[in-house]
Amino acid sequence: MIIVMRKGATEEEIADVVERVERAGFGVHLSRGEESTIVGVIGGDRASLEALGSSLEGHPGVARTMRVTKPYKLVSREFHPEDTVVEVGGVRFGGGEVPVIAGPCAVEGRELYLEAAFAAREAGATVLRGGAYKPRSSPYTFQGLGEEGLEILAEARERTGLPVCTEVMDPESVPLVARYADILQVGARNAQNYPLLRALGQIDRPVLLKRGFGTTIEEWLSAAEYILAGGNSQVILCERGIRTFETATRFTLDVAAVPVVRQLTHLPVVVDPSHAAGKRQWVAALARAAVAAGADGLEVEVHPRPDESVSDAAQALSPEAFRQMMDEIAAIAAVLGRRVP
Amino acid sequence: MIIVMRKGATEEEIADVVERVERAGFGVHLSRGEESTIVGVIGGDRASLEALGSSLEGHPGVARTMRVTKPYKLVSREFHPEDTVVEVGGVRFGGGEVPVIAGPCAVEGRELYLEAAFAAREAGATVLRGGAYKPRSSPYTFQGLGEEGLEILAEARERTGLPVCTEVMDPESVPLVARYADILQVGARNAQNYPLLRALGQIDRPVLLKRGFGTTIEEWLSAAEYILAGGNSQVILCERGIRTFETATRFTLDVAAVPVVRQLTHLPVVVDPSHAAGKRQWVAALARAAVAAGADGLEVEVHPRPDESVSDAAQALSPEAFRQMMDEIAAIAAVLGRRVP
Amino acid sequence: MIIVMRKGATEEEIADVVERVERAGFGVHLSRGEESTIVGVIGGDRASLEALGSSLEGHPGVARTMRVTKPYKLVSREFHPEDTVVEVGGVRFGGGEVPVIAGPCAVEGRELYLEAAFAAREAGATVLRGGAYKPRSSPYTFQGLGEEGLEILAEARERTGLPVCTEVMDPESVPLVARYADILQVGARNAQNYPLLRALGQIDRPVLLKRGFGTTIEEWLSAAEYILAGGNSQVILCERGIRTFETATRFTLDVAAVPVVRQLTHLPVVVDPSHAAGKRQWVAALARAAVAAGADGLEVEVHPRPDESVSDAAQALSPEAFRQMMDEIAAIAAVLGRRVP
Amino acid sequence: MIIVMRKGATEEEIADVVERVERAGFGVHLSRGEESTIVGVIGGDRASLEALGSSLEGHPGVARTMRVTKPYKLVSREFHPEDTVVEVGGVRFGGGEVPVIAGPCAVEGRELYLEAAFAAREAGATVLRGGAYKPRSSPYTFQGLGEEGLEILAEARERTGLPVCTEVMDPESVPLVARYADILQVGARNAQNYPLLRALGQIDRPVLLKRGFGTTIEEWLSAAEYILAGGNSQVILCERGIRTFETATRFTLDVAAVPVVRQLTHLPVVVDPSHAAGKRQWVAALARAAVAAGADGLEVEVHPRPDESVSDAAQALSPEAFRQMMDEIAAIAAVLGRRVP
Predict the structure, then answer these.
(1) Which residues in chain D are contacts of B252 at CB distance < 8 A?
(2) Would you identify the CATH topology of the domain A86-335?
(3) Label partner for D243 (CA 20 to 30 A): which of A252, A274, B128, D47?
(4) Rounded CA gap, D177 and D180, in Å?
């Protein structure tokens, strides 16, 4: 069960609720968010939880109590029926618009990144992407430029006027990355890195949470719950393909996750067709499929000269191919009464 | 290696080629098709195959020789660069049109099926579907009406003017089903039932070949090769979802298979969103995604009163929901310069 | 629900039960087995089924009635608590013995097969294997010797005194294969070929039913139910690896299927480590794991000169490697109080 | 390519090599280990790498240069042909012994944990396990006792004399956990958490690295490479089941990973049958299979009263069941010439 405190609940009210929960023999998990404080109740059988819930109805400072049957709760549409809109620098994820995040896989250098950023904006991107910290399978491959990459991203934002999205890989780096980035991205390999998710629950900045390639939809939403339970409800989900037996594509895009997730949660869901396809000739088809399925946005790899890319070269679109993709998805979004900004 | 004989090659010419191949120490696999006879060469290393190939260039009756590096050949786009169009009663799969096959999962009875058929046609379906023979996991569930079902399908075709598509489950039944059906469907569970595929290679009737839920794209195309190698090139491929760890949906629709397969083969590829989703609320989203990805058609379960369906009730669309889906996919097809007939 | 008739139930008694079921508004699925006739009741809600069940308790000819909650019933341990022992030419699967079926993947020729058969027997095999009909991904590769292969198998049995196990691929061939083979094998690709399974339900000969590489344990047991429902309860299950994202091995051996299946069913379960591993250097480790997990036998590919094998060359053991494997599994079986005959 | 410096290479020698690599136009990744410093060369085509490699042969301070074709190198058997033995408090992983790590999933409290620890030791465990930090899908479930849990583990070690193994979830906690634990465990969800792996490369303490449930064997070994590249070669690999379509078990134990990994790497590999099975009745069968396949140890959940466990209750063995399992695996290990200490 979770106990949602009223927005202005006092410390005394919170302490009183915690004490009552503990006195009743339960454990307590306290989440202090900007919007509200949530008292998670740990342990207990159905009957005792119901008794506790009843006793707290109308208690000072308590907004409501809810039984947790799914592993996630704040994330669920039952808890929050209307779509959440995550707004970043004037770009809206989740309100009928379909923004596209684009740019190179990694920030490889200043000149190249700025060239890529302008090309992406020119072709219709409204958010820039680019990794300063890269989770790479091998320790001997390019691992990103680190803070230097963050500075390049900041300069690109300055000069293009577009917000930037970049990956953060460990809790300690969250404050640093949050100083530079407009959206903090959690990569697939960290999709269940709970200390990192907790750290992201403490900041007031949007988070793009990729689904792990081995995680179920339920686990993915539960991972998002860690961020919301910490008090940060600006979460954008991102489907990017799962591991299956098929090897023709790099991963198998689970396009059905889009309507499934939109039914289960109020959070916006975007799709990364680049990592799923793994080969650029299939990226546009997956992008179109994602928008047609109802995705609230896309994240796409674009590179001025894809074959020169130091990571994931095979899957980056050229600016020309990206522009054509943008035209197609704009028309498809319109069919669904949506708009690519 | 395969040796493709000219269309009018004589028996003597064929026999001569076979003899030369055998004399060179290879095994022979002879496929007599309506369009051409193919001499498959079994065994041998690269060098000896090349020598054999050179010696047969320009030989009487020989159209060409080809090294087989993939397990499929006639199916590949290298072999036949233009799109194959499979035409059934005026409906064209593969030529820029996006026809929709619709109807109940199973033919449950005459009245109900006719009602469903008219409703499907009314909402825009151009081919009817319905199983007379049902492959069911349990031997104790409804297994289909058999020939009586085929007769009902024939009556529905007569009265609606639409061609019908129905499943065949074993080689022996091919002639019977072919007497009634316009398209013979191979279900996912028989996707690698080679005796059945061989039998379908011997008929002059389109085959809709579903991908097995555990088969790779390469195996799927190789299965189609069995039909083409037998002489029947009217094959429509159908992606219907694969087995993965995700359980929110019944199967995971591999929407990327559409552009991948369209690159690898000249055969049309359609998508069955119903079996992939397993729940009707997600079917339309998957149908839109499939058309946006470039599918050459759809196969959708529609039932006048879905909750009364004896099989797969949860995934059938009502006629109203189906009509709305049709409107959406028609608009998306138009974006790609295609047309839902 | 299923109604199990007594062993000697008369035609009148059966007809009477069928009539009562139909009069109550249900469909009927009749399975006439050698051991007993089973009346499957199709359709109906819980309440009406219970009413029907009660009304048939003690009815003439009726042994018992059972609610079907799983898709399989005769196969389940609830229905038949003791282990089923399938005996073939003195070899017992399922009674604490761990026999090994061995031989080349395919029967490639008389001389070679006889050499392989003697080598396998010499090294401890108690059943011979070898495919006369081979389900191959490509129509252009060796498809087996057909009836000639069956004759070679029969000669090998004659000369070695060991029973033989070979694959059957379509219902029409069942009588022919049954004339030659002691165990009829259903391959992974035909694991849900229901017409074939039905045909095998009609014969009085053991069937080795491989699990499909994309089928769940529940579907596999349900496939076995088709054979038992037809009246043939001599079924040996065979786990041979499933499709997963891991590509180091050809398939992923689901070794846990052994204890799971032994809990769910009374049928013996054997393991094929050769197809799972796909490379011979890992076959013995998987064989040991299977026996340690409680498998009731193994099916292993052995070839006198593995590198010359025309199919699956990479996974066949040499006779020497096979002998060493036999020594190891015999010792492991002994740890579990079992015996490799 | 990687350049392995001699053990006593001076700072000047290292700096000289780095300079030469950079002057040749390559990037540099420097790993300073206790055993040796490794200069990773980033970028470059085959020809220029070979030229660089030749020029550094025999260079002062350089032990050898190696082309990196796999993403991992120090981990590979080519690099280090003999088995690595990881020794912890007298227990040896990798040298023909098969130690068993056992204990409750989580440290739930002092009394209970000590009881469990003695029971585990009594039944044959030689290392204790227990989570002080628990990665849980839901933020509202028990997350572990934290440092209090570590103190309990230390007390258990003190009193039982057995070393303890416990999970660490983020780089910042590594020094704290390393103060208490003998083996630091990386859980499946952090299998590709590279900052954590880097931090573990900096310590002089054994690491048990679980395979991610969605990661390939190659990715798993590459993750280990991060630790070795940092200078810590005391890594124990742990297979614990992967995600597949089968739902009867919690995960699918990839038992073949044992022989595959033992061929590819010199590091010891143990198996966790508890998380794979997910139900206690199948744990012993998987444990036996693992040892029979050649595992260098096991990690098993044991709880004095399994049904009272606050996490993963369904999969913990009782001390009695654990003891029986120990007897069986000791006998199986003996068959392979190995010994359960």
Answers:
(1) none
(2) TIM Barrel (3.20.20)
(3) A274
(4) 5
Q: Give the residue carrying structure tokens 């079992």.
A: C338
The ipTM estimated for the assembled molecules is 0.90
Burial environment of residue B161 by CB neighbours within 10 A (0 to 12, 13 to 18, 19 or more): exposed
Rounded CA separation B168/B165 (Å): 10
| D247/B244 Cβ within 8 A | no
Residues in chain A with CB shorter than 8 Å from the CB of D171 are 170, 172
B247 to D247: CB separation less than 8 angstroms, yes or no: yes
Is the CB of C244 less than 8 angstroms away from the CB of D260?
Answer: no
Percentage of chain D lying above the pLDDT 90 cut: 74
A40: helix, strand or coil:
strand
A243:C247 CB<8 A: no
The token pair that represents D62 in the structure block: 């350089």
Chain A partners within 8 Å of D141 (Cβ):
42, 71
pLDDT means per 10 residues, chain A with 341 residues, are 88 93 85 76 78 88 84 85 93 96 94 96 96 88 90 97 97 96 98 97 97 98 95 96 98 98 97 97 98 98 86 87 97 97 93
The strand ranges marked E within chain B are 2-5, 27-32, 37-42, 62-66, 86-88, 91-93, 100-103, 127-129, 164-167, 183-186, 207-210, 235-239, 269-271, 298-301
Chains that touch C (3 or more CB pairs under 8 A): A, B, D
Domain residues of chain C, as ranges? Answer: 2-66, 86-335
Q: How many CB pairs under 8 A join C and D?
A: 126
What is the token pair recorded at C23?
A: 């009069």
CB pairs under 8 A between A and C: 6
The Cβ of residue D171 has, within 10 Å, a number of other Cβ atoms equal to 22
Of C217, C218, C289, the CB nearest to D289: C289
Is residue A177 within 8 A of residue A163, CB to CB? The reply is no
pLDDT score at A45: 74
- Packed helices B283-293 and A257-264: angle between N→C axes, nearest 10 degrees: 140
What number does CATH give the domain A2-66?
3.30.70.1140
What is the CA angle A196-A201-A202, rounded to 5? 100
Task: Name which of B68, B139, B172 is nearest C225 (Cβ-Cβ).
Answer: B139
User: Apex CA A89: angle with CA A83 and CA A95, to 5°?
Assistant: 20
Chain D residues interacting with chain C (CB cutoff of 8 angstroms)? 214, 216-218, 242-249, 252-260, 263, 276-277, 281-282, 285-286, 288-294, 328, 331-332, 335-336
Helices within chain D (DSSP H only): 11-23, 46-56, 110-122, 147-160, 174-180, 194-201, 217-229, 257-264, 273-277, 283-293, 319-335
SS3 C32: strand
pLDDT tens digit string along B92-120? 999 899 999 999 999 999 999 999 999 99
Q: Which residues of A touch B191 (CB under 8 A)?
A: none
Contact C245 D214 (CB under 8 A): yes
Q: Cβ of D263 and C281 within 8 Å?
A: yes
Nearest to D176 by CA among D193, D152, D151, D156: D151
Q: Tell me which range, A251-265, C31-45, D15-29, is most confidently predicted by mean pLDDT.
A: A251-265
Q: Say which amino acid occupies A86.
A: V
Q: What is the pLDDT of residue D32?
A: 75
Beta bridge pairs of residue D237: D209, D269
Yes or no, beta carbons of B138 and C196 under 8 Å apart: no
User: Would you say the C-alpha torsion C308, C310, C314, C318 has a positive or negative sign?
Assistant: negative
Q: In this complex, do B245 and A282 lie within 8 Å of one another by their Cβ atoms?
A: no
Query: Measured between alpha carbons, how far is C304 from C10 in angstroms, rounded to an integer?
Result: 54
Note the residue count of chain D.
341
